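Budget justification aside, the reviewers requested a transparent look at the raw inputs and outputs of the sequence design task funded under Objective 1. We therefore reproduce one unedited record. The lines immediately below are the structure tokens for a 261-residue chain.
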């Protein structure tokens, strides 16, 4: 494992025991994510995309194989606050304004108040929410709430950002805008990002690599290196390179489904 390796999974498996029998959520997952990568996970529901992120975050424990995060176990990485996590729903507390929602993990860390203020101001500017510090979540659009959730995950300045389909509930116009903002934020910060999505265009537009997964038992069927340039205006989606990558992703998804069938 190199010093640039952020996540390394080897023969990773996770089986849930239920009253109806075992559910093989992940099987023989081998994956290395390097510093600065933007890796999207795509596949049908139940293929283990979110489960893999939850294993990285120490929210689920694997039953086979091994995984490291910054050379540590997921539990050690969690204790070291090595990552930020953005869930499908923004999960903001309605009785706290945006500033205090973003500040919450810093308060839990008992960080100096002046440093809390500095960081909150910095991340709200990063996600283009400057001026909305005193607004409450119910006063903001869904897209703005998700940007606040991203700001909260960035507040303690972890190098790794885990994002579980954060834009899935938003309309296409808002989603496109947030995709552009996320690309810009990733370029400015140099974070390593693991991103779960069901959208082929979103996966292709955002990623340096796309991990295609198949239904249970959840496994990786393809890892696609993106040939797209770092500069990615939205109209790059009309380019031949983009369409070719999207076609490969679509074919990988079809093959995964046919293997199950």
């Amino acid at each position: 494992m190199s010093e640039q390796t952020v996540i390394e999974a080897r023969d990773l498996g996770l089986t849930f025991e239920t009253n109806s029998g075992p559910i093989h959520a992940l099987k023989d997952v081998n994956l290395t994510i390097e510093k600065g990568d933007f890796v999207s996970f795509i596949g049908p529901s139940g293929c283990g995309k979110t489960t893999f992120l939850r294993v990285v975050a120490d929210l689920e424990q694997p039953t086979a194989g091994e995984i490291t995060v910054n050379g540590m176990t997921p539990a050690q990485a969690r204790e070291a606050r090595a990552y930020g996590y953005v869930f499908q729903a923004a999960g903001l507390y309605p009785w706290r304004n945006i500033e205090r929602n973003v500040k919450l993990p810093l308060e839990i860390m008992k960080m100096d108040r002046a440093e809390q203020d500095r960081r909150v101001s910095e991340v709200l500017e990063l996600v283009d929410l400057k001026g909305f510090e005193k607004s409450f979540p119910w006063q903001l659009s869904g897209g703005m709430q998700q940007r606040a959730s991203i700001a909260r995950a960035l507040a303690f300045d972890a190098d790794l950002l885990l994002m579980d389909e954060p834009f899935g509930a938003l309309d296409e116009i808002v989603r496109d805008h947030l995709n552009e903002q996320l690309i810009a934020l990733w370029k400015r910060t140099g974070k390593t990002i693991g991103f779960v999505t069901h959208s082929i265009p979103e996966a292709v537009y955002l990623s340096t690599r796309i991990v295609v997964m198949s239904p249970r038992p959840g496994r990786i069927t393809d890892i696609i290196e993106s040939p797209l340039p770092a500069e990615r205006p939205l109209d790059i989606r009309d380019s031949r390179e983009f369409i070719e990558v999207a076609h490969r992703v679509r074919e990988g998804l079809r093959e995964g489904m046919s293997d199950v069938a």
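The longest strand covers residues 5-18. The beta strands are 5-18, 21-34, 38-42, 64-69, 83-86, 160-164, 192-197, 209-214, 219-225. Computational costs for records of this kind are itemized in the attached budget.
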